[in-house]
Amino acid sequence: MSELCHEFTLRSSTLAVAKQQLAADAPTAPAAAPAPSVQVGRETRRWRQTRALTLAQVSEKSGLNIGYLSQIENDKATPSLEALAAIAGALDVPPAWLLLDSSTPPRVVRLADRPTTEAGCARISEVDAGTSRDVCVLEVTVDPGHSTGVHAHHGDEHHLVLSGRWRMTQGDHTVELGPGDYLAWDPAVPHDVENVSATPASMLVIYPRRGRRPTEERPRS
């Protein structure tokens, strides 16, 4: 079914162009500040509280003054690398974890908010809704007896079957997959994906966000 192939190509190409435009418009990042100037107060306090430790206990474990630790937690003092390592040891975390900003919330896409495209006998739902920086995750549902048609494109492609049975054909290789099965291939080699179930079937398709560019498509008759 050529419509499905075209929808894949159109959606991924549009997203790639948008991402490239955003990257071009983004301001140039300032030069990285020296490590000693990084503020670690928020993470130091968070990990101390997570470990249920008092400043006195961290002081005892690290050998650092309580007042100095309080200043660090309030970003009024910046620890040396040695002090940072001592604090991390007292909190039982890698020093690098104290340099991270955990205040940024995770990206969440609700089922009802997924961009969805109806393409003939197929339904394409963008699981990550364009929030992922490096990959595109699609949930594809195809009616029984239908296929994508023979097509090819660039960029690694991964498949995880959610429901139904699928016939995956590439060159001389034909594989039938069922729920939970995984397949990856070089999509530059022409391939076809067919739902051989008696009911609609679904799978996850994952590929690089910038990597999917069409080469040639041949609709299945």
CATH superfamily of the largest domain: Jelly Rolls
H/E topology pattern: HHHHHEEEEEEEEEEE
Give the radius of gyration.
25 Å
Number of domains: 2
User: What is the approximate shape?
Assistant: elongated
Query: Helix content range of the residues, please?
Result: 25-40%
Whole-number mean pLDDT = 82
- How many strands? 11
Strand order, largest beta sheet: 1-2-3-10-5-8
Low confidence ranges: 1-29, 32-36, 213-221
Question: Can you offer a commentary on this structure?
Answer:
With 221 residues, the protein is an alpha+beta fold. It has 2 domains: 36-99, 434 Repressor (Amino-terminal Domain); 107-218, Sandwich (Jelly Rolls). Helix content is 28%, strand content 27%. It has 5 helices and 11 strands. The chain has helices spanning 2-25, 41-50, 55-62, 66-73, 81-91, and strands spanning 116-119, 122-126, 135-142, 150-153, 157-163, 166-170, 173-177, 182-185, 191-195, 201-208, 214-218. Strands 1-2-3-10-5-8 form a 6-stranded antiparallel β-sheet, covered by helices on one side. It has a 3-stranded antiparallel β-sheet with strand order 7-6-9, with no helix packed on it. Strands 4-11 form a two-stranded antiparallel ribbon. Strand 2 (122-126) and strand 3 form a beta hairpin. Helix 3 (55-62) crosses helix 5 (81-91). The radius of gyration is 25 Å and the shape is elongated. It starts with a helix and ends with a strand. Mean pLDDT is 82; it is low at 1-29, 32-36 and 213-221.
